[in-house]
Amino acid sequence: MTKLYAKRPKGTNPLIWIVAIVCAILAIAVIITGIVVFAIYVIYHPKMPYIKVAYAHLDQLGYDPSGLLEVQMALKVVAENDNKKAVASVSDATFVLRFHGIDVAVLQTDPFDVAKNSSAELDYLFRSSPIPLDKEGMEAMRVALNRGVVPFDFGGHARTRWRVGIFFSVRFWARISCHLNFLYSNGSAVDLDCSSKSR
């Protein structure tokens, strides 16, 4: 008579158990992180800080037929923090003023904080060195002076961060790009509307 022997089932490889435990821990960590982030959003309703040009004035425009441009200008850039429960930090703020693609001035500032539901003002008063314009730039300036409105391009960025407590923070870039138009007769800004805020 033939005898049949049943084989004892082999145990699960310990390595598989370790991998399963690690995966379970990671899954739990992701779920907990999601719950924490959602709770913070519900409690704090975070809003992205933004920057805007609140004031601009062309104090002086020097230009001669040889194509040398010299500008004196006053600008007020404001960092707005609409978060009622979170302080915002601003760093790496750099702004560039251009005429017809030619750099006129580069504006920078040291890192600073903006209190909860508040704003911080950056006042710039600068005078550029004489800047030689190319033929296209000279033609653009001729047209601008004839129209009585001198256009400049203003652009730049700032790294913003809002933080809750000590350990949690969110970072992103605020980028700004707009046209600044000034009346040649008195230097006043025309229809000033320049902000990094989404519309």
Automatic annotation (TrEMBL):
GO biological process terms, semicolon-separated: defense response to other organism
Any one annotated GO CC term: plasma membrane
Statement: the UniProt record of this protein carries the keyword Transmembrane: yes
Keywords: Membrane, Transmembrane, Transmembrane helix
Localization of this protein: Membrane
Segments crossing the lipid bilayer: 15-44
Keyword NADP: no
Source organism superkingdom: Eukaryota
Designated name of the protein: Late embryogenesis abundant protein LEA-2 subgroup domain-containing protein
Source taxonomy: Eukaryota, Viridiplantae, Streptophyta, Embryophyta, Tracheophyta
